[in-house]
Amino acid sequence: MELDEFYGDIADLIDIADEREIPLSQVQNIFRNISNVSARNFFGLKKRLNEFYDVKLLNNLKNDLEELVQSHIKFDDKMITLIRNISLIDVESKLQQAFGTDFEPEQYAYLAYKIEQLSEHKKLYQFSTVREINVRESLSVSSLREEIVEDYQELIGVKKMKLHCYDFVLLDFERDIAVLGVDLAQILGANEVNIANLNFANFLNKELNIKIENNQKIDLFPKIKYFYNLPKDDSNGVIEIYFMTDEGTAHHETARGNTRDLRTATYHSSGVQGLRKIKSLNEMLNADISACRITSKFYQEYSELQIALKSSYVAINTSNGSHLYEALTYGARSLEQFDFVLDKLLKK
User: Would you say which domain of life the source belongs to (predicted)?
Assistant: First the structure.
């Protein structure tokens, strides 16, 4: 491979890392480990590529960046739905057909991207699509016409940005579940990722005849309380929570500063303990909080895995019970870490 080809391939990988908001520090680390080169931003790293002339070094750089990007595409920043009571063999057969050369979706803009046997019992089917998000940027007021520039102190522009996304179906024959994943959930934002999740489900239903009913989706709402009640130790911590008291007061709290677990912070623990000690007519009311959203971090030796379960205050008091079928995951970069996330969501 010629030097220019290496430069082009590596520059493309840097662009993908930038688009997917992979931390610059992780890309920098790869450059430093190979050649002790760094830059202030992604563009700066691309500019420094012409300093490399060693083909072996360039090949190592390309391979390491490819591994970083692909691990992010497969496992990181996802909205996932867990499906049970479904024939995995039947789903597998329909997915295999989608990867045939004659498959062309009629309505939804998905392309068959890749099949990967992750392990003996896990098979990943990825579909690519391009989504658009609106990005707000501050612009220079001086760009306005002279006669109106004095009327404005700040100018905000909104532009559309394309995102290359890789949604997936993971068949886990060991657990006997299917996992649906929508890519780049955090970048898309709450509204857009919910639309993307619906579109992916419709694509599977209408284009592949893979129909999934709500009663096949694993209800994750009980996991909100489960995560809140996990032991308060160095392995996990709650970093954000929405909850309601028995009196109907809504609260939203986040971990402040360097706090790794807001449950142990005074501003949270003292309030909850005070609530639980409320008496009426000299009798304890056994008052407590009812959480509807929680974001927990799980601290591992070299990484932090984040799981968010986001329902609503309204759901707490619905007549037919509270249900939640999606989880947001962030930080997983390997099958082992993704399995850890699944174990936490499935543990009874």
Answer: Bacteria
